[in-house]
Design goal:
Layout (H helix, E strand, L loop, with lengths): L5 H11 L8 H12 L6 H20 L5 H16 L17 H7 L4 H14 L4 E3 L8 E5 L2 E6 L5 E3 L1 H12 L15 H18 L3 H14 L4 H13 L3 H14 L6 H15 L1
Antiparallel strand pairs: 1-2, 2-3, 3-4
Helix pairs in contact: 1-2, 1-9, 3-4, 3-6, 8-9, 9-10, 10-11, 11-12
């Protein structure tokens, strides 16, 4: 990931100052996408997202029979997946463009979290409670209505998932011994959804050994998620590996300021002392 230009940095910093409930995931994802596509207008992509929401509203309003949660599930799948063709492909995990929302809109294919952001955008535009959940195997969304909840898989055309489906997904990644816990259903804050989106870019860079761009990606995440202690620690560790000692010290000091209950705090304090010694 290239370093964001000053105007994009300023926009992400403004997002970082907002209460989480006021963060627009789709708009912020478009801002992040524009870092890799300088000069490309966001206007057509905003209009597309508005059209998705308008068509979903029209579909729900014109439906016969009972409404409720079933209609909401049907509306999202019908408009986003069937009418517009959004869905997953296995090669998405190997394609860096699959985390770029502009490219995802262009191609109607992307990573689960990028597709999930579109589902979240459309549902929230209609006033429907929806969130991403902290499920490790694949990004999933939880849709609600009148106290009832369901889990949808944006990567699989908005398919409704049963508890068994989720167990199977989880075991495929974590092994047959693994079991779901209540934590896997925990709602993610909007910033954490965006961090999960950008993490895909960072992981690819780390696998390629590109530490310089990986730390730039983490520092870009810190612009919109400045209170996430784990990101400060990761930035510090990457700077230390690159021998950027002053930057490593600054990042790890921020980590200690934010990560008061983190079990890695003691080890990080020891590393920080060592790095400070190298500065003297």
């Amino acid at each position: 990931m290239v370093k964001p230009p000053p105007d994009i940095r300023a926009r992400l910093v403004r997002v970082g100052a907002l209460d989480d409930g006021r963060v627009d995931p789709a708009e912020t994802a478009l801002v992040l996408a524009s870092v890799e596509r300088p000069g490309v207008s966001m206007a057509p992509y905003r209009r597309h997202l508005e059209r998705l929401a308008a068509e979903a509203a029209a579909y729900a309003d014109g439906a016969d029979g009972p409404g409720g949660l079933g209609l909401r599930v049907e509306t999202l799948a019908q408009v986003i997946a069937r009418r517009y063709g959004y869905g997953g492909a296995e090669d998405a995990y190997d394609d860096p463009d699959s985390a770029n929302l502009m490219r995802v809109i262009d191609r109607r294919r992307g990573l689960p979290v990028a597709l999930g952001i579109i589902y979240i955008h459309v549902a929230r535009a209609l006033g429907w409670p929806i969130c991403g959940i902290d499920f490790p195997a694949r990004f999933l969304v939880r849709l609600e209505d009148d106290g009832n909840r369901v889990i949808l898989d944006p990567f699989d055309g908005g398919r409704l998932l049963s508890a068994k489906d989720m167990r199977d997904l989880f075991k495929a990644v974590a092994g047959n011994h693994a079991e779901l816990t209540p934590a896997h259903y925990r709602a993610l804050e909007t910033r954490d959804v965006l961090v999960r989106l950008q993490n895909n870019i960072k992981v690819r860079l780390l696998r390629a050994g590109n530490l310089e761009e990986a730390v730039e990606t983490v520092e870009t995440m810190l612009l919109f998620a400045p209170e996430r202690a784990a990101l400060w620690r990761e930035a510090g560790l990457l700077h230390a590996r690159l021998d950027n000692v002053p930057a490593a010290v600054a990042a790890l000091e921020e980590y200690l300021r934010h990560g008061t209950g983190d079990p890695a705090r003691y080890r990080t304090s020891v590393l920080l002392q060592e790095l400070r010694g190298r500065l003297s």
